[in-house]
Amino acid sequence: MPGGNPVDELDEIVHVSRILGADPALVLHGGGNTSIKGRVQDVTGESVEVLFVKGSGWDLASIERQGFAPLRRSRLAELLKVSALTDTQMMNELRQASLDSSAPDASVESLLHAMLPARVVLHSHADALVAVMNQPNGRSSVDELFGDRVIVVPYVMPGFDLARMVAELWPKLSTARTEGMVLMNHGLFTFGETAEEAYSRHIEFIEMATQRANFETSPATEQSAEGTQEAGDEEDGSVAFAKFRAQASHLAGHPLIVRQDTSLVARAFAAREDVSELSQQGPATPDHVIRTKRLPLIGRDLTAYAAQYGTYFTENSSRREQELKQLDQVPRVVLDPKWGLVTLGGSSGEVSIAADIYRHTIDIIEAAERQAGYQALPAGDIFDVEYWELEQAKLRRGGASKAFQGEVALVTGAASGIGRACAEALLNKGAAVIGLDLSDSVEATFDNPNWLGIQADVSDAAQLTAAIDHGVRRFGGIDIAVPAAGIFAKSAPISAREDNAWLRSFEVNATAVARLFGLLHPYLAMAPRGGRVVLIATKNVAAPGPGASAYSASKAAAAQLARVAALEWAPDGIRVNLVHPDAVFDTALWTPELVAQRAAKYGVTEQEYKRRNLLGLEIMSADVGKAVAELCSSTFRATTGANVPIDGGNERVI
């Protein structure tokens, strides 16, 4: 195991967990788990044998000390003697066995870790081994490959029943040579007295499986490519893609994020003549069903998929004793020869996870096909995990989602000032945001999976069209638009007006907005909750100042355009409103020198100048951003064509 001198049990298990979790071919998005056994002193001074096991919700790649739940081993041993427990009861008992009430819920496989006698236990769902197991001759291949160095356990759903089965099999099957355990169609456990020993065994077994399966991992650079079709292509373009997203959102009952991957790997698999056979076998390992559903949709017929899913639910719901709440009938993975791999979910994070899992699934399927053929578990076994009582309990508990969860916003001028503040406010309310800006800094303005920053000149028709297409391919559509990009020409009286400055002001402040509106209308009209536009106008529309003719006139033109859009687009359910900021001093327009100059002109201090409004407030970009986000919310569902000042009260406007 590479480097490091662990100080105690937790340091040791954190170190090896991060190494194991850093390889996506071993562990994906919260999968896998690890544990270490040790002793701690409780508050009474008693020395207690403890199992430190990975906590629910933690990712092995980034886990920290507090990510492990400390469980009393004596209590776990008692639980293993119980003849039957529901998984809900088991999780309750694990919580009571914890020495730390603030620790996360322990892994559902904690009892399995507890009964294994080794000090360190590592568990992964390695792609190469899954490819070996998911074949008609998977069991015999595993036996032949590892011999008596591992014990092999037939597939049983994770939880109490699996732990009890292994506890019964262990005395019968384990020997002095036992170094690991294979759970069929699930994953690999290795153990040792040190983390280094358990890890070296793990890697050795995975390498053996890799050679056996002739396993190949698709190049990461190809996996991350995105759509490049022409936006105007009626059948396969971005408008058609957004229409698909609108249909899926309607079926789900809430807005969805939809992402396209047209990498060579994705498109080649989606275009295979036997894709309908291979992809309909089921997931590579049962726990993937929570992220991807059991089967992907082949093509684009969402209605047929929903009917098929309904049949699947009806045929299998009797497997569970409790009444089940049917999940939505929307696919999480779509395979289409033109679109490649498409993933759907309630957030950008969900679609990214589904895409990652299915890319690995493609590698697994193709590796298995090079051998005896890919064969997943029967539908009933997958159903049991998809409708696991623990997952159903989460649904019953529910939980409030953010206001714009699953929705997509486009903000221009998003790298700084008011545009950035609007983007931040929308991100904070759960929206995925496409941010456009002339500055390349827009790409890294926010470190958030819901953020897509694109460098583009909004006055360039080709760049604007390409940016919108890119954003739609990333998130699925556009529900909210906030045109915030603008320029303020150098102040000059009308008599000294320069044509270039005048024309450039109209090009950016008015014509670019008109073009943006025309390009966005098809997407806004398909928005699941209705399209919303908030134009960042200005106080100058109502109360222009001397020397600002180019800015005032061009912004007034844009304001009139927004009012016309409010009239024209109301039948499409699109709301168009305007905000009119004034004297927002945390923007690039207001340099310290300019503030000092203006304050001196009026004979006041700089702070007094910044608060020259009726309410005596200093107006910030965040004030504008919050107002814009609120105008896009359901609070203003009955408002369109409104003009909202954000200026602290301006006498000339009032």
Relevant terms:
654 residues, alpha/beta, L-fuculose-1-phosphate Aldolase, Rossmann fold, 3 domains, seven-stranded mixed β-sheet, seven-stranded parallel β-sheet, 24 helices, 18 strands, 42% helix, elongated, disordered N terminus, oxidoreductase activity, Rhamnose utilization protein RhaD (Predicted bifunctional aldolase and dehydrogenase)/NAD(P)-dependent dehydrogenase (Short-subunit alcohol dehydrogenase family), NAD(P)-bd_dom_sf, oxidoreductase
What features would you describe in this structure?
The chain has three domains: 9-213, L-fuculose-1-phosphate Aldolase; 222-397, 3-Layer(aba) Sandwich (L-fuculose-1-phosphate Aldolase), CATH 3.40.225; 408-584 and 620-646, NAD(P)-binding Rossmann-like Domain (Rossmann fold). The chain is 42% helix and 14% strand. The strands form three sheets. It has a seven-stranded mixed beta sheet, with helices on both faces. Strands 14-13-12-15-16-17-18 form a seven-stranded parallel beta sheet, sandwiched between helices. Helix 5 crosses helix 8 and helix 5 packs across helix 15 (348-369). The protein starts with 8 loop residues before the first helix and ends in an 8-residue tail after the last strand. The model is unreliable at 1-6 and 221-232 (pLDDT under 50).
